[in-house]
């Protein structure tokens, strides 16, 4: 593939672009590598848009995604696909660029970005309070669709991989996924979950491999605090499917009582953990304010791996929700990728904080980055 843009000197390319001044400050950003913290710019609240601001700040502090925007790599992906519409990605990149190159610390308005996300997902029209995790899903999906390296999704024939080993099957399933969905967003955020179904009659075990963009964790019941690891254990706990839920066993060719279990087949670079604080069961949704104790460093997930993988994650951002389902307020805590210091982003205000304050009963969406993964 010939990338036309690559022929130009980066500065020359910057000059040709309408956002030339931003591009120039970005080259300065990368060349000076200064110790002065950047990215400490707030986002104005446009009326109940704290959910959006909170997630935007978490994403802006996602090192690889930030650099993808700052280096304008998304344009290469767009050009290679001759995309007609990439307005959401453009606005997202522009916003990230302004957040990281702004000379002053004055808060900026995300209204151009909001216009685009509304076009993509009309549910975000208006100024209602929204769920930050749902917003994150819509946003990542929207960005992915615009920078997908696959421009025409092929029809993927249904193939039978059941004769293969689990490892081989997982690889084939993943490659099939990439034939349709392949982007920087997928590179960073998507992992693969294995679910195994074991028949209680004959012991036959069938496996399915599905991509995941985040994990929604149930909160373990407790009167006091619970550990994140216990929420993960609850999520991956063996579950019995009986009664109406009985699946069909492929060997017995009949509906049988089965046990189902999840494990992580492929660990994503960025692991988003969503704590299910809001129960959907009742009409008036209730919020669980259980204190979930999560590690800031070295979240070790090896016990949840399908095979002998070792995966260690470090926390770098949290979306914090205070208040109730109806009248809440979102903020973000982010670790600055350049300095390693933590900051609170409360709409237009950004202030330093200590990492000891990051854990609270209001932590709602956790962003972890993979620090180490290896086969044991
Ligand atoms: C966020 O800022 C508002 C004022 O804009 C303030 O009332 C509120 O207490 C702040 N919240 C937190 C958690 O710092
Ligand atoms: C986050 O939640 C904690 C715990 O309730 C609260 O005290 C704190 O003010 C919130 N922080 C921010 C920055 O919103
Ligand atoms: Zn069976």
Characterize the structure shown.
- The longest helix is centred in the middle third of the chain and has 16 residues, at 132-147.
- The strands form four sheets. Strands 3, 9, 11, 12, 13, 14, 15 and 16 form an eight-stranded mixed beta sheet that branches. Strands 2-1-8-5 form a four-stranded antiparallel beta sheet.
- It is an alpha+beta fold.
- It has one domain (49-370): Cathepsin B, Chain A (Alpha-Beta Complex).
- The chain has helices spanning 10-16, 20-32, 50-60, 63-70, 73-81, 87-101, 111-120, 132-147, 166-178, 184-189, 228-236, and strands at 191-199, 205-212, 215-217, 226-227, 239-241, 248-249, 254-255, 258-266, 270-275, 292-293, 299-300, 309-323, 328-335, 342-346, 349-353, 363-375.
- Strand 11 and strand 12 (309-323) form a beta hairpin.
- Helices cover 31% and strands 25% of the residues.
- Helix 4 (63-70) crosses helix 6 and helix 6 packs across helix 8.
- It binds 2-acetamido-2-deoxy-beta-D-glucopyranose (2 copies) and zinc ion.
- Residues 320, 322, 331, 344, 346, 360-362 line the site of one 2-acetamido-2-deoxy-beta-D-glucopyranose (NAG).
